[in-house]
Amino acid sequence: MTDSLRDQLLGLGFKPAPKPERSPKPKPGKGPPGKPGRDGARANAPKPHRAKPKTGGEMDLAKAYAIRAQREKEDRIEAERQKQEAARIRREARARLAEFLAGKALNAEDAEIARHFEYGGKIKRIYVTAGQLKALNAGELGVLQQNGRYLLVDAATLAGAEAIFADAVALKIDPDAPAGDDPYSDPQYQVPDDLVW
To answer: Looking at the domain assignment, is residue 130 inside a domain?
Structure first.
């Protein structure tokens, strides 16, 4: 970096420090009447007050702090903007999902079998019929979460919903998954499809 801090600050829009105005020195013998001093100025004239100039380092440090504070403020504003944008995208995706799922839920009112599954780090359940349980465990059906409810849907609807809003997929069983991927594929750990827990 060949630019000095002063050049960088000027590049960011800071104005250079104004130069102090100097009052013109009275010329000898031309001042108001009074007792002239050695140099011709009045002896009783007040001497101009000269403030100690700040060193360049102090001014640069203050400006550097101001720049840093401005950048931190801009970073916070940008992070908040991104957060709001992500929330807007999620709201729009949820609205499209609700539209897509209208009338496609297969939840049965007379379902009495609780099918448990893990979603969001917690154990959840959906009530299904015996036929739905077999289809669900075979990957022919899936479960979506919408507005706090769990909807049982067919595999095609599940795939469409996943394309719209993947976070809504609560339970998706891949029937083509190799058994080696499942640590419980050993027959001694097999759970019967009709197990209710």
So the answer is: yes
3-class SS of residue 180: helix
CB 136 within 8 A of CB 152: yes
What are the start-end ranges of the H helices in 102-148? 130-137
Please provide the DSSP assignment of 51-101 as one string: PPPPPHHHHHHHHHHHHHHHHHHHHHHHHHHHHHHHHHHHHHHHHHHHHHH
For the chain, state the CA radius of gyration. Answer: 39
C-alpha 147/C-alpha 137 separation (Å) is 24
pLDDT, tens digit, 9 for 90 and up, residues 47-79: 555 555 555 556 688 888 999 999 999 999 999
Is residue 196 in some structural domain? no
Q: pLDDT digit string (tens) for 135-179? A: 988 889 999 998 889 999 999 999 999 999 988 999 998 877 665
**Which domain does 139 fall in, by range?**
113-189
H or E stretch at 162: helix 155-164
- The confidence band for 16, taking pLDDT boundaries of 50, 70 and 90, is confident
Does residue 118 lie within any of the structural domains?
A: yes
Helix (H, G, I), strand (E, B) or coil at 155: helix
Q: How many domains does the chain have?
A: 1
Please indicate, yes or no, if residue 122 is contained in any of the structural domains. Answer: yes
- DSSP letter at 4 equals -
